[in-house]
Amino acid sequence: LFFQKPAPRSFSFSLSFSLSTMSDPVLSNTSTLKKYLELPQQGHVMAEYVWIDAFNEVRAKTTTLDEKPKSVEDLKEWNFDGSSTGQALGCDSDVYLRPCAIFKDPFRRGDNILVLADCYNSDGSPNKTNTRHDCVKVMSQYASQKPWFGIEQEYTLLNESGSPYGWPKNGYPGSQGPYYCGVGTGKVYGRDVVEAHYRACLYAGVMISGINAEVAPSQWEYQVGPCSGIEMGDHLWMSRYLLCRVAEEFGIKISFHPKQMLGDWNGAGCHTNYSTEEMRNPGGINAINAAIAKLAKRHLEHIAVYGEDNDLRLIGKFETNHISRFSYGVADRAASIRIPRSVFKAQCGYFEDRRPASNIDPYLVTSIIVETTCGNF
Ligand code: ADP
Ligand code: MN
Ligand code: MN
Ligand code: MN
Ligand code: MN
Predict the structure, then answer these.
(1) Quick check: pTM over 0.90?
(2) How far away, in angstroms, is 338 Cα from ligand 1 center?
(3) What are the tens digits of pLDDT across the range 110-128?
(4) Rounded CA gap, 334 and 322, in Å?
(5) Minimum-distance ligand 1 atom for the alpha carbon of 151
(6) Quick one: which ligand is closest to 276's CA?
(7) Is the ipTM of this complex over 0.90?
């Protein structure tokens, strides 16, 4: 009786039942797993190819190499089933992965690597999801101006059922105030994930420059930069991959939504700090002002690529200017563009574009900033 095939109806019933109401334990870091991870790799290297799908999320799969590559040129072009990632139709489903950048793999360690790749169709044209391809062109066109970026990635930790991590089951935590850069029980939520991610980024070679707890409980930030040109998008995407992987081991989900909690809770952004060589040099404040004047003229074109649902976040409250308005100011966190006080004092340095949302595609955002400020607008 036990070996009888279940009737189709009861099978589909039990499947949907188990998906919606039960969950298996998170199998990670068990002593059983550790035994296998100690086995030698016999000289082989595992290369985890990471790419961006049609939903602005990362995907990844692994291939075995016979030796450690010295640069991306040593890595093969690979492919995947684009019909399963929203990147191709089933009838012509092969999408090609071209290696762009190599990082160390903090999960497998040793000589194992992470490979950031961009996506091409079978006819050689860039896939519709490949925003890196055009970003490279923009960055090389204006390379002589030496653009640098630093992005402040904000995000929210969620539990497996999708509620903010650590929030009471029925009700809300106390109002905002003690959480930003908070210290101590009841003020910080999920620091383990943040610490693990920070270390994983440093190990991998991602240019992470700091972390802090954010204004809403279970909301955090890390900064990546300064990075020059195309590096900004590459490093931010790899940092997101690392965050989702680290959180997976803790059974925690990452939300990059700009307004995860509606109501009196801060939204999440990707403040984009930016400078050219002229801005960084003595007297650079003139170049900063000139760039801001150009940004003012193209506000709506920038907003168009500054993230989905950003209108829920840019409401003229919670340290934002309204999405329909453009303004700038020294040390003003309610402005679209902030010139840091220290930069104003030194009369050179960089400025902060506060408009981009947490779910931006950094290739689009860095491209348009360089285009607008270095081009003839
Ligand atoms: P905030 O005060 O807005 O919270 P953060 O300290 O979080 O600022 O982030 C500042 C960011 O500015 C960092 O990512 C840093 O790398 C970046 N940054 C610093 N100097 C420059 C520069 N000259 N050009 C571009 N970005 C810079
Ligand atoms: Mn297969
Ligand atoms: Mn910050
Ligand atoms: Mn912040
Ligand atoms: Mn900021």
Answers:
(1) yes
(2) 11
(3) 999 999 999 999 999 999 9
(4) 9
(5) 14
(6) 1
(7) yes
